[in-house]
Write the structure tokens for this entry.
Amino acid sequence: MDITAATSRSHSVYRKFQSLFGETPLLVGSPGRINLIGEHTDYNNGWVLPAAIDKCIIGAIGKRDDDVVHLHAIDQDQTHVATLDALERSPLLWPNYILGTVQQLVKRQYPVQGFNFVFSGDIPQGAGLSSSAALECGATFALNELFAFGIPKLDIALIAQAAENEFVGVKCGLMDQFASVFGREGQLIKLDCADFSHEYIPFANADVELVLFDTQVKHSLASSAYNERREQCEYGVSLIQKHHPEVRSLRDATRWHLNRYVKPVDRVVYDRCRYVLAEFQRVHDACNALKGGDLEAFGKQLFASHNGLHRLYDVSCPELEILVEAARNNPAVLGARMMGGGFGGCTINLVRAVEVQGVIHTVTKVYREKTGMDAEVYRATISAGTRVLTIAD
Ligand code: GAF
């Protein structure tokens, strides 16, 4: 989103809140994310390399005198009203991302009171850009500001993740919520999901751009397959644990463990686990390449990550394959891979800046010819994390 669009959207969220409730709200912005490499590694206690982007949720929040939670989604033109003592799942789905965070705050004994919340977003849904994490983080952050709870940033991300795990029912790792809360302009975040230590790595190179191609599909098995992959990894760990109780996650496992204890029992689980171990290493190799300014080596890690996601982790789909193949055949693309949970959504492409227009033209043409659909294109700008906005923003 460019600055003008962001400003006009902040204004319209602000005005909508005033027209509904006659009061002046607090405004927050909470971004979606991209991930350069480290896919399906977060819930295995490994490393990821995400960044917050300029597409975001803008929310307006204000206190009420009762225990009502009054939510309004501008883009859907839908309202959901609940009370704090009866936080039930809504069939509208979007309220659950907010109600889930409220439930987590109540569970942690933060004195939440009634509030009004109005929001709008420009993060495409189902594109793997974490619109749901942005909403969860935005709501948690806004409630923390409104009621001055003093919740540290890491806990905001953890509360948002717990909302997704427990209220929404997707057993995601912490990557999306962490990236949304901790994002910084122009910086990638190398996050160690075992202890949440992290370092920022600048992504500032005028020679390349990050281009996302959106398949425009989200296959229905996405969330059930996601939970199944997680269970398969846990099963692999349990097979090793019988002999080596000190191995508590794939982070502690080695190829030797996999060959000895997993491969003879379950070949599919073995493939899942060996993908994860290889992806751990690729994150390090990619970060080292980036720090050394070797973008070609960095790009190769992206292609290798995709191969593993497709062949071993089995979370790709025909539409993603068409986009990655079209990119692979183009010398101006240094690296490309599917991004996020899989089964649809976007590919992320590292493209030589001077050739971006040509790459967009060719890849979208191939996609149209092979699927009859138009791939949406986003040029990613790495931006700041969840924050308070002034009306001038
Ligand atoms: C989704 C999840 F929400 C993340 O936690 C992560 O596991 C990702 O899929 C795959 O890397 O975005």
